[in-house]
Specification:
The complex is a heterodimer of chains A (about 110) and B (about 120). Chain A has about 110 residues and is mainly β. Helix content of chain A is about 0%, strand content about 60%. The chains are: A mainly beta (about 110), B mainly beta (about 120). At the A-B interface, strand 4, strand 5, strand 9 and strand 10 of A face strand 4, strand 5, strand 9 and strand 10 of B.
Chain lengths: ~110, ~120
């Protein structure tokens, strides 16, 4: 069974204080690993897809990396508007089904 | 449409009543998914449609839950005889994926329908 574990559950940072969010996964065959951002009362918003170990992607203050067992979402010099819940999900090579299996998310709070 | 639309955005019902939740996916998206998000929990997969058929219904928690999709577009999730544990946000997502291996398929989510069962 596919498993996704995110840590820590919650993270409080001071504005400008860089940090990393962790996503560990166990799957039979990885098709892709996704990072989403979710704001209160809204649906998840797509950030990145990573396909293979060693791949990195960047968007503004966010950088996502992938190994064979885990992914990190690095946040450089965060701002209060980066406060949100960050969700990690995996998509596996299970034939025609392309569902995502999600972790429980990491709630990030950035203080001004 | 431009995004995934869900209705109602909020629904309060009494225990034992039936509810219907609607999802209007992005035009042209062949794949449609229903997820459930309870307080403090991650997204729980319910059901996946490819076109009008549902190859994977494994996440439906009981036979009180059912879903259909018509015309390869709109989908309805029906919960019969609602229970308090059904209270959650029900999220719909769509994807342009064909279901064959063509790389990972990005899911675009709607804002969700918040269901409260009293």
């Amino acid at each position: 069974e596919d498993q996704v574990t995110q840590s820590p559950e919650a993270l409080r940072l001071q504005e400008g204080e860089s940090s990393s969010l962790n996503c560990s996964y166990t799957v039979s065959g990885l098709r892709g690993l996704f990072w989403y951002r979710q704001d209160p009362g809204k649906g998840p918003e797509f950030l990145f897809t990573l396909y293979s170990a060693g791949e990195e992607k960047e968007k503004e203050r966010l950088k996502a990396t992938l190994t064979k067992k885990e992914s990190f979402l690095h946040i450089t010099a965060p701002k209060p508007e980066d406060s949100a819940t960050y969700l990690c999900a995996v998509q596996t090579n299970t034939g025609a089904n392309s569902k995502l299996t999600f972790g429980k998310g990491i709630t990030l709070s950035v203080r001004p | 449409g431009a995004g995934v639309s869900q209705s109602p955005s909020n629904k309060v019902t009494e225990k034992g009543k039936d509810v219907e939740l609607r999802c209007d996916p992005i035009s042209g998206h062949t794949a449609l998914y229903w997820y459930r998000q309870s307080l403090g929990q991650g997204l729980e997969f319910l059901i996946y449609f490819q076109g009008n058929s549902a190859p994977d219904k494994s996440g439906l928690p009981s036979d009180r839950f059912s879903a259909e999709r018509t015309g390869g577009s709109v989908s309805t999730l029906t919960i019969q005889r609602t229970q308090q544990e059904d209270s959650a946000v029900y999220l719909c997502a769509s994807s342009g994926g064909t279901g064959t291996y063509s790389g990972a398929n990005v899911l675009t989510f709607g804002a969700g329908s918040r269901l409260t069962v009293l």
